[in-house]
Specification:
2 domains; binds flavin-adenine dinucleotide; alpha/beta; seven-stranded mixed beta sheet; single chain; binds FE2/S2 (inorganic) cluster; 5 helices; Rossmann fold; about 260 residues; globular
Length: about 260
């Protein structure tokens, strides 16, 4: 799959986080999908990096991402300046379902770490359709809480949890999920560290359908290199699935976690 050159129009940095706005040919996407982003960085590092879509403005041919600088590739993306070229392949993978539950029931969005951007995109799409949204965000400390202003703009007040108690509930975000499950949500959507996803899947079992977005180190991002395979249960049998192609969003019931 060919990458498209896009231009950076804005880079809003806050500590290790950078919100990038790219302009170019934009194919309509679903929340939960991602792009492989590669700066104009020559042969090192060799591969693009998978980054979730935070939002898109089709009319302006713009798509937005939030990147945390953790290593070589993400540090280069974090340092981009307006006018720089980014080679972008996407949108890739499956998105979160946008219907299929009782529309009268609220849905819970559970986000942690760099799992927040796709959940903010999902919240924006769901709020357009009038769904009741309970947004729970967890982080180590308050400086790592993300995109609170964007949530506020769309009228979503997030329930917050921090490990050190510097904002919201002191503890892990799944403690908030356990409480909110009492409201009998139509579905739960989660993106974040695997420990959070496993815990969410266990808490939701028998109470609400749960969809989780998995992470993996990715080579190609579109189903060819098989570097991202995970095992799922399908119709009672174990099957291999590519996180980049059949995922990254999976029904938690299909994962060998419960
Ligand atoms: C579908 C998908 C969507 C993602 N969306 C976002 C996003 O919206 N914003 C964002 O900042 N990041 C996102 N990530 C994670 C991002 O792709 C990695 O942080 C990035 O590839 C790291 O590359 P690097 O060159 O900076 O780090 P490297 O030098 O490759 O590695 C640095 C450190 O990060 C770890 N690491 C590398 N890749 C991953 C990974 N995929 N998962 C967990 N640990 C990893 C390595 O083990 C190492 O400790 C996403 C990942 C996937 C699979
Ligand atoms: S990253 Fe290549 S098959 Fe998934």
């Amino acid at each position: 799959m060919a990458s498209k050159p896009m231009h950076l129009v804005q880079n809003a940095r806050r500590g290790p986080y950078a919100t990038l706005t790219l302009r170019g040919e934009v194919i309509p996407s679903h929340p939960g999908q991602f792009y492989m982003l590669r700066g104009d960085w020559g042969l090192s590092p060799l591969l693009g990096r998978p980054i979730s879509i935070l939002g898109e403005e089709a009319a302006r041919s713009e798509v937005r991402f939030l990147v945390k600088a953790v290593g070589e590739g993400s540090r280069i993306l974090h340092a981009l300046e307006p006018g720089d070229v980014v080679h972008a392949t996407g949108p890739l993978g499956s998105g979160f379902p946008l219907s299929g539950w009782d529309p009268q029931s609220p849905v819970i969005l559970l986000a942690g770490g760099v799992g927040v951007p796709p959940m903010v995109y999902l919240a924006s799409r769901l709020s357009e359709s009038g769904a009741g949204i309970i947004f729970c965000q967890g982080a180590r400390t308050k400086e790592d809480l993300l995109l609170l202003d964007e949530l506020e703009e769309m009228g979503v007040t997030p329930h917050l949890a921090t490990d050190d108690g510097s904002a919201g509930h002191k503890g892990v975000v799944t403690e908030l999920l356990a409480r909110e499950l009492e409201y009998q949500p139509g579905a739960v959507f989660a993106c974040g560290p695997e420990a959070m996803l496993r815990s969410a899947a266990r808490l939701c079992k028998g109470k609400a359908p749960c969809y989780v977005s998995l992470e993996a180190a990715m080579g190609c991002g579109y189903g060819v290199c098989l570097s991202c395979v995970t095992q799922v249960t399908k119709e009672g049998r174990t099957a291999n699935q590519r996180i980049c192609k059949e995922g990254p969003v999976f029904d938690a019931e299909a994962l060998p976690w419960l």
